[in-house]
Amino acid sequence: MLETYPASILRDRSSKCGQGFEMHLYILIRYGKVFKTHLFLSPTVVSCDQELNYFILQNEDKLFQCSYPKPIHGILGEVSMLVAVGDTHRRLRNVALSLVATLKSKPEFLGDIERIAVRILDSWKGRQQVMFCAEARKFTFNVIVKQVLGLTPDEPQTTKILEDFLTFMKGLISLPLNVPGTPYARAVKARRRISSTVKAIIEERRRSRRRSSDGGGKYPNKRRSGTNGHDFLEILLGVESLSEDEKVSFVLDSLLGGYETTSVLMAMLVHFLGQSPAALAQLKLEHRTIRSMKGEDELLNWEDYKKMDFTQNVITEALRYGNVVKFVHRKALKDIKFRDGELKMVINPLHILMWNFKKDWY
Ligand code: HEM
Q: What segment(s) does the record annotate as region Disordered (predicted)?
């Protein structure tokens, strides 16, 4: 049988060591790769075992199901893609995949991202010090808000969404006490405010579309919405299979899924490259070669990105080694027998926390 340990081991180690390598190593040495504990108000199996984690992911929706802790449902709402399961999840995911594919095929997609990057790089001129992680967060947020809602960094709605989104993020990882003044209660309120802002943007966009069909040109409200009609929202508005709440949730899911992950990955890339002068030199060479074949102000296109083989390898390796998403949650739909060496285990608690652990870390 699996050994059971108090949840405090995770809390203690995370406050002492951060959530990184040391904590993983401590847990692995002290408690083994798979152990039972109690987390998020339910009995939990924590697995740092690659074989078991692979097995769990391979049996998605058969033996295991995505299941984030209940308090997260309270903040995200039940139609969030991160919370929905089964057919609803499949339907939302299919819509999301086709929306992303459509968005990426638009010629403006890469240009918009490059313009935001150049603007941030320009703001570094003359500065003695740059806090890269903060800059990466700014970049990621601006890219997502531009791609999803068509808003530029200067628009007041962008600042409002950012403020609410940061409050929302703080509450996601706090004690789920819905009492006024707690981070959790503030997050629930912030989520409602973001919903209202997004609904107002959707309404405005619908009015704009109606005006244009009445003869006001294709996108008469171009300045106000900051879009040429190539953002996610514009495509989303045409999807009839989604309810209004699902459309709003899509926007929130994109922010939630993309903001922290992408900015942490960028910060890790810089960190790893800083430790590897040879890789940095090769990366610069690849970029300069591509740049030298383009005109002075010519923006990068997909063909240029396809030539960046080394860059792609650097990103893939940083993703692999950097462990951006440290763990994911699943629940077991039935008792599962799992053999680990000579030890046969039965995983019966509902909650499973799969901890991503790389073999070459130890
Ligand atoms: C370095 C970048 C990223 C990493 C490492 C990452 C990682 C992940 C992982 C591991 C999951 C699965 C969670 C689970 O199964 O429980 C996930 C799901 C998801 N991610 Fe990302 N992600 C990244 C970027 C993004 C971006 C840019 C967006 C959107 C703008 C996004 C949106 C989502 C959404 C909506 C889901 C839920 C999908 C579903 O349930 O089917 N992610 N991501």
A: 205-226
Residue 352 lies in a domain: no
What is the per-residue pLDDT across 98-112, written as a single tens digit (0 to 9) for each?
Answer: 888 888 888 889 999
First to last CA, the chain: 25
Q: Which residue out of 82, 113, 265, 319 has the highest number of ligand 1 atoms within 8 Å of its CB and is therefore the one to mutate?
A: 82
Q: What pLDDT is recorded for position 347? A: 58
User: Tell me, what's the pLDDT at 350?
Assistant: 59
Q: Is residue 107 part of a domain?
A: yes
Total tally of structural domains belonging to the chain: 1
Q: Which atom of ligand 1 lies closest to the CA of 57?
A: 15
**Whole-Å CA distances, 246 to 47, 92, 93, 237:** 32, 8, 12, 11
- 299 residue type, one letter: L
Which residues form ligand 1's pocket by a CB distance below 6 Å? 66, 81-82, 93, 144, 253-254, 257-258, 261-262, 265, 324-325, 328
Residue 131 CA to residue 142 CA, distance in Å, equals 17
Using a cut of 0.90, tell me whether the model's pTM lies above it. no
Segments forming the whole domain that contains residue 193: 100-211+225-258
Answer whether 139's CB lies under 8 Å from 116's CB: yes
Q: Is residue 329 part of a domain?
A: no
What the block records as the tokens of 13 is 């180690």
- Assess whether pLDDT exceeds 60 at residue 156: yes
CA 68 to ligand 1: nearest atom: 16
* Residue 196 φ/ψ, nearest 5 degrees: -65, -40
Question: Is residue 124 a part of any domain in this protein?
Answer: yes
How far is the C-alpha of 354 from the C-alpha of 289, rounded, in Å? 42
